[in-house]
Amino acid sequence: MHILVTGGAGYIGSVVVEELIRQGEQVTVLDNLIQGHRAAVHPQAEFVLGDLAEREALGDLFDNHSFEAVMHFASHLRVGESMEKPFMYLGENVVNSLNLLETMVEHGVYRFILSSTAALFGQPEQMPIDEEEQIVPGSPYGESKFILERTLGWLDQIHGLRYAALRYFNAAGATTERGEDHNPESHLIPLVLQVALGQREQVQIYGSDYVTRDGTCVRDYIHVLDLAQAHILALRALDDGSRVYNLGNGQGFTVREVIEMAQEVTGHPIPAVDAPRRPGDLPTLIASSDKIREELSWQPRYPDLRDIVRSAWNWHRAHPNGYDDV
Ligand code: UFG
């Protein structure tokens, strides 16, 4: 298949591209390189510098290629930032995605994978969270993804566009060549590893008075390669119908437990200080991924937090300045 991957120079997108190419697919990456890194793009993928806000250029891209499917990662991605800049999320995230979807429909491309999120579940009634859980986004970021999921439902009904919405919990870990490098970095595991590398003095713990086993937030960390596998399985199943899946390992770790694990894996002390809660954060987010396990036989290969942190550590040690070193 020839697949367009938006945001294919970003963290998750670049690893999915690596895996698609390893499995013999043809890939074109579209990325504006504001967050993404040119060096993260697999050398066998075609790279197109561009922005989803540019409708005409997007139309030209589709005119000049015969895409059979689109995987859409390009997005603003910070829950906390979305609480400060709602228009960036409810505006750009949504409008850019609609540009992409409309261009797809105009060009008869009807297979789509959406990078969705656990941030849909702002008031979970059950833990772990399965696909039956009520959707109450806890932030404009979550809301933007919910709007897109609902839009996809309409496009399926009206145009027969087949989609999978994959709601990741906390993507983490790295391959040998590709890892997490955001600027500024806001994610727990890379921040903690930067402390281990001596690049930061300490990590702040956002909230230590949550109702959890040690007062800090509980998250379900999933290896980015296991996410990549889920994307490919979902893509291959699309012709049998649209679907949504929650993706995690079904196991939660507190912020303090992640820091302890990173100390063990790296052998370095990681000083941590308590800080106020971060707006938009939920105390606990753990996924039930029974549905994708049953329907698509998805099996995580790296469910162990130790392996996840170790893979991230190996990448950060090899690339202490991220993709600037590549
Ligand atoms: N945290 C800290 N200190 C930090 C950074 C993070 O204590 O310096 C805490 C956060 O409060 C949170 C946990 O560590 O409890 C994980 O935070 P991340 O920023 O790494 O990840 P999030 O859980 O906020 O967000 C991730 C994705 C989002 C997605 C969300 C859904 O980045 O895109 O999971 O759960 F929406």
Notes on the structure:
A 7-stranded parallel sheet has the order 3-2-1-4-5-6-11, sandwiched between helices. The chain has a 3-stranded mixed sheet with strand order 12-9-14. Strands 7-10 form a two-stranded parallel ribbon. It has 10 helices and 14 strands. The two termini are about 30 Å apart. Helix 6 (about 190-195) packs parallel to helix 8. By secondary structure, it is of the alpha/beta class. The protein binds uridine-5'-diphosphate-4-deoxy-4-fluoro-alpha-D-galactose. The site of uridine-5'-diphosphate-4-deoxy-4-fluoro-alpha-D-galactose (UFG) has 22 residues, from helix 6 and strand 8.
Concise structural overview:
It is built from ten helices and 14 strands. The chain has 326 residues and is α/β, with parallel strands linked by helices. Helix 4 runs parallel beside helix 5 and helix 6 packs across helix 10.
Write the layout of secondary structure elements.
Elements lengths: L1 E5 L4 H12 L3 E6 L14 E4 L5 H9 L5 E4 L6 H6 L1 H21 L4 E7 L22 H20 L2 E7 L1 E3 L15 H9 L6 E4 L11 E2 L1 E3 H14 L5 E5 L5 E2 H12 L5 E4 L8 E2 L4 H7 L8 H14 L8
Parallel strand pairs: 1-2, 1-4, 2-3, 4-5, 5-6, 6-11, 7-10, 8-13, 9-14
Antiparallel strand pairs: 9-12
The protein binds uridine-5'-diphosphate-4-deoxy-4-fluoro-alpha-D-galactose (UFG).
